[in-house]
Amino acid sequence: MIVLSLLINHPLCIYFSTVKDVRPGLLLTHEQQRLHNQMKKRRECQLINKATSSKELEEQQRQEGLEKAIDSTNKGFSLLQKMGYKPGLGIGKNNSGIVEPIGIVLKSDRKGLGREAALKQIREMKKSIIRNKRSAEPSVCEYRERRAQEAAEKLDLLDLLRCQRVCRQMDLKQDIQEASEKFFWPKQVSEVDTNEPKQEEDEEDVISINGQLEILNFYLRQTYNYCVYCGIVYDDETDLMEECPGPNRQDH
Q: Known InterPro entries for this protein (predicted)?
């Protein structure tokens, strides 16, 4: 027991028991980890601030240098003075040149030197294309007129088809086996599906839908006293003239 107590109280044992484990990279407690993270963040902030301050200082020095007028200590300025240049006057023989030096434009990006000029030209090209397209587009009035014309042509086509069916029925009742005009009767399937080349231009290709309707409507009224818009066969021409409002759709 005496020997054990002497060993425990030995100075070396007391020293080793009080020394902390400070091996590099070893964080034993949560408090040590927290302090380490704080120091790391503080170091990063210091580096960022240092880089920012250096950039700001560089920019400030550059701006001061650009704003400061050159004097006789500058070799180029001294050469100009020897050739007769006076500060505040334009350069050249008659002092008609520029007074202030050409401004310096600092290029801090890695874009091509001609990129800005090309983009500016592209913007102008786009504006020109849009202007030409808008000028080529029909106006509101022209668009409305075209839509109204298309709608009228559809109605004329429907009226023409109805007149053709009625004309064929009435002609066959009168033992007329062939249409007086090619467009008086509806086209047969064989006529529509034929692939033979046309020897001459058909009449219906020359006369418009409205023209065909006008001619066929006149034929029905004069021949059979029939009005396609009334849908009635009148007794005679006098009955047709008195009872029918008129020969056109607008009259009805």
A: DUF4187, G_patch_dom, GPATCH11
